[in-house]
Structures are given as C-alpha cells and as structure tokens.
Amino acid sequence: MRALPGLIRLFPVAVTMALAAEAPSAVDGATIRHVDRSDATCGGRAPCYGSIQAAVDAAQPGDTVQVRAGTYVERVSITGKNAGARSEASRIVVQADPAVPAGSVVLHGAVAQCAQGHAIQLQQSRFVTIRGLTITGAGGTGIALLGGSSQNVAIRIERNRIVGNGAPGCEGGSGITIASGNAGTLVLNNVIAANGRNGIATLDADGGPHTIVQNTIHGNGWNGLAATRAHVLLLANNAITGNGTQSGSTGGRVGVRRETGSGLPAVTIVLRNNLVCGNRLGEQAGPVLDAVDGANLTPTGAEGPGVVASPGCEVPTLVYRDLAGADHASGTLDDDPTPASGSPLIDRGLDPRTLLRRFVLHSARRAPLHGSISARWRPDAIRSHPRSRSSRRPSTPTSGVPCR
Q1: 287 assigned to some structural domain
Q2: SS3 sequence of the chain
Q3: How far is CA 272 from the centre of its chain?
Q4: Which among 104, 218, 344, 375 could bridge 69 via Cys, Cβ 3.0 to 4.6 Å?
Q5: Mean pLDDT score across all residues of the chain
Q6: 18-22, 33-37, 240-244, 306-310 — which is least confidently predicted?
Q7: Is the pLDDT of residue 24 over 60?
Q8: Predicted local distance difference test score (pLDDT) of residue 357
Q9: What would the pLDDT profile of 50-61 be if each residue is shown by its tens digit?
Q10: How far apart are CA 92 and CA 30, in angstroms?
C-alpha cells in the first residue's frame, strides 16, 4: 500500500476546489439575473430574460441566474465562464428560484438526437454551480463536462433531478458525463435515474479528482457509475441501486464499473459508506475495491475489501418508501427516493466532513492546479441531514423532489 500517501495527497484538491473552500466574498456588482419563459417582466424583477441561455450568456463573475417555474426547452451551453477566476468569490450559480415549488423548474432537452443532444454542456469554465433543476428529455447527456483543452475547474452539480436523458444507443446518453481533466468536480445530492446509459460516466483516460457524494443513482440503462482508466474519484454516501435496466451486457450493467487494463490500481477510486444493491449484473466490476474502501453495503458483502452484507438491500421496497412516486411508474420525474422505515440508508452513512478532513490532515502537500488557486477547507460546505446529527446515506428528499 505504498501508493496510499500519494493518493491522499490528490484528494485535498477535491476538498479545496469542489467542497467550497474559502468562504466567498461578494463580487462587486454581482447581479441576480431572472429567467421566465412566460412573463417578460419576471414578476417585476430585473434584469429579466426569456431563456436560460440568454441569462447565462450575460452572466458575469459572482452572478446568479435564477430560473422561475416552467418548462424550458433548451440546449444550454456554458462556455468560457469565469475563465480567469482563481477563487470562490467568482462562482456563477445557475439555479431554480428558491421561492418556487421544488421540481417546478424543468429543463427539457431541445435536441432529440444523440449528437450534440446535451441539455447542459460546460466547457472552459470555472467555479460554476448547477442547482435545483429537473433535467430531462435530452437526446444525449443531461449534463456534459467537456475535457482536454475544453476542460473545466470546480464545477458543482447539486440538488438536481436528472432523469430520462439519452437513448440506450447513444454513446453519450448518460445523466452526467465528465471528460478528461475537470479537477474539483462535485456531484452532490442529486437524483440521477432512468437515463439511457450510465447514471454518471467519466470519459477519456484520466481526470479528476471528482467527488460524488449523497446521490441516488437508480434504474439507469447501463451502470450507476462507469469510470474510465485513471480518473480519480471519491464516492461517499451514495445509493446506487437497480441499474442495468437495458438488455445485454456490453459496457456493463452493474453498480460501479471501472475500466479494466494493466496498471490501473483500485486505489485511485475510493468508496466509503455507499449502498450498492440490486444492480442487474452485479454490484461492481473491474479494479474498484481495496483496503482504502470501507463500510459499503451490498446484498452479500462478498465483492471484496471494504464491503459488508446488507441482506435484502436489493429489494427496492426495503430501501425506498415509494420509489415509483405518485404516478406509480418507475423512471419518471416524480420518482421518490425517500428511505423506507428501517431502510439501510438511514443512519449508516458517514459525515463527509470527517472523511475529507482526514484526507486534508494526512496530506503533506497540495498539488498545484491550473495556477495558484487558493482555497481552504470549509467545514460547513457539506452538512449532515437536517433531521439528525448523524448522517444518512444518501441525504434524500422528504417530499419526492431534490432538496434545495
């Protein structure tokens, strides 16, 4: 396990970049840009835009794009935003208006085909948050983070419902795709369900660190999470269940899949306190588990190190109270991942702050990232469930829609 200290040095980047680091100070002149597709005055608020894309195009460092209730048929491109930013103070937030009912802001993909069929695409952007949206109907990926020369830094995807995007035959038809680079990506407290391929997929040979915390990833066509080669990931407190709904086995139909190949140590993926159950062709595949993992639940606990048995967790009714929701149909926008009474999701997770703080405390140094980006661990960046001081795995909505 000599590689362990090196890995632990990698994760402070995820902590400092993705888990909101130093407390942001307001940018001078920061603006709330309101969006309403049906009211040209946005209820008397200004500035007012008729589309999400128009408000995003106008957004400056520190701004908030606040979207009012309605269904927006768009393909949103976030390009070159905060390209020179070096701190959280510049963060741009694209969010559902907190004053409207949760789940009432729907971004429906405008392109039915796979190619360029994303609902949201980010490239060459830094310090951007996507929050509180229902994202559905995209022919391709729900949210796509481009890589290489177009990669992003410190993107947060939080409290969204990403459901029903991508056809099974679409290579990019997943809920979220993360290409090479994209250091400091945080995917937090989302419902990612019924997408054509994977719930979350990395692309290209390497990237990260990416931090995947407190999500419900259920009923996707291929895998819950599919990781390529040397991407560095931390998964904690996620419920990864019932994936692999499409027929066949090409590309995997498991909970967590890692690409196989020589020289791919499992240590670059850390799994802590996840529930991985009821996935059609198994709970994990590839070099995923090793001694740094711990307290993950599967039906048998036989997959390898860091896994314990939770008999019955493959039965949805024992895990979720009413997963199909009010319409009694799985894989639709009202699916409700609220835990059932006695669910293994309840009070079995860890407070992510304790794990991430440990990575920080054991770090001898911090790797530089795209210049000198200064950041510090902020203990209130992720909070435990409001109803209990003990943490849950994952933090799930109590009303059938993502928490704000």
Answers
A1: yes
A2: CCCHHHHHHHHHHHHHHHCCCCCCCCCCCCCEEEECCCCCCCCCCCCEECCHHHHHHHCCCCCEEEECCEEEEECEEEECCCCCCCCHHHCEEEEECCCCCCCCEEEEECCCCCCCCCCEEEECCEEEEEECCEEECCCCCCEEECCHHHCCEEEEEECCEEECCCCCCCCCCCCEEECCECCCEEEECCEEECCCCCCEEECCCEEEEEEEECCEEECCCCCCEEECCEEEEEEECCEEECCCCCCCCCCCCCCEEECCCCCCCHHHEEEECCEEECCCCCCEECCCCCCCCECEEECCCCCCCCEEECCCCCCHHHHEEECCCCCCCCCCCCCEEEECCCCCCCCCCCCHHHHHHHHHHCCCCCCCCCCCCCCCCCCCCCCCCCCCCCCCCCCCCCCCCCCC
A3: 16
A4: 104
A5: 83
A6: 18-22
A7: no
A8: 55
A9: 999 999 999 999
A10: 9
Per-residue pLDDT at 128 exceeds 80 = yes
Percent of the chain clearing pLDDT 70 (strictly above) = 80
pTM: 0.85
Which residues, at least 6 apart from 161, have a Cβ–Cβ distance to it below 8 Å? Answer: 103, 133, 134, 135, 136, 190, 191, 193, 333, 401, 402
The total domain count for the chain is 1
Residue reference for tokens 């960046």: 381
Q: Is residue 388 part of a domain?
A: no
Report the 10 Å Cβ neighbour count for 338.
Answer: 17
On whether the CB atoms of residues 274 and 301 are closer than 8 A, the answer is: no
| Cα–Cα distance, 125 to 78 (Å, whole number) | 7
HSE, side-chain direction, 13 A CA sphere, residue 348: 23
- Among 109-118, 212-221, 266-275, top mean pLDDT goes to 212-221
CATH number for the domain harbouring residue 249: 2.160.20
The strand pair at 230-236 and 307-309 is best described as: unpaired
Q: Extract the tokens encoding 349.
A: 């997770």
The answer to the question of residue 344 being in a domain is yes
| Any domain includes 204 | yes
pLDDT class of 356 with cuts at 50, 70, 90? low
